Amino acid sequence: MTSSAMSQISVRKMFEQTGDKLSLKWVAGHGGGERLLTSDTVQKPTLALIGHLNFVHPNRVQVLGCAEMDYLRSLNTSGLTLAIGNLFSTELAAVIVANGEEVPAVLISAANSADVPLFTSTLASPYLMNVLNHYLTQVLAESTSIHGVFLEVQGMGVLVTGDSAIGKSELALEMVTRGHRLIADDIVEFFLVAPDTLEGRCPELLQDFLEVRGLGILNIRQLFGETAVKLKKNLRLIVQLEKLAGSDLTGRDRLQLQEYSEVILDVTIPKVRIPVAAGRNIAVLVEVAVRNHILRLRGINSTLEFMARHEGYMTGNSGDGE
Description:
CATH architecture of the largest domain: 3-Layer(aba) Sandwich
Number of domains: 2
Strand content: 25-35%
Radius of gyration: 28 Å
Mean pLDDT: 87
Structural class: alpha/beta
Strand order of the largest sheet: 2-7-6-5-4
Shape: elongated
Helix content: 25-40%
Low-confidence stretches: none
Order of helices and strands: EHEEEHEHHEHEHEEHEEEEHEEEHH
Number of strands: 16
CATH class of the largest domain: Alpha Beta
């Protein structure tokens, strides 16, 4: 596992990924495309225009809506120049003029002088800000990378981990043939998209590919179709494959009384440990582990039910014997 880090994205990348959806047009400040966005908060700089600069935080997107543009239009030439100067005196990442508003020439000139990307959009500012906030929350989430295979099994995000050459990729291939979906092989990127939610994604370079010893690199999408792969999924369960010195399973905890978990980015994820031995159908065991986990989420614990039944049986027999 690599160390976690806060993500960042350039304004140019944001424009490439959201430009069409947000109807963005890049009108000035083309030299600032590599400015980095480090906050998922999109602001309206109303107070900054009248000189309250402490309300404008650096490296964020500033959106000028109807109220802000109405205020700028109400100013005379010197007042307009001062207001725009106030706005650009801080370290802006980008400015978006929403609602199809006409952009004053002084705003275009200031954006070009400061190399701050200036965009226009025909969308209403509240909708634009909501979409942009959601997008930035996803791409700027704290993240970490983990070695393993990430699958969607029974609709649940399952991370399969284990030592190298233990059979994770072969397991993933069999799971795909059984109707489950591959998200990522080898490296999985997890993003903290909510205080208790990790979203797993595949690095762009590795999307659709699965490496299986003896077969090489396989394109799962082309081999099995669009439904065999998925771009992302929330992580709900970890399955850890463990090698055994031999094929003897008698030393294992047969009742599985101990529950395991793993903490990733301060989120606790339930974990199941499955011993790998000759003759064991690991794909079936993983499927059943997921089904059993779903039952536990519903409050059904087969082990506890069995122990309660056993205790009742023993108590009943003891009474009959007396």
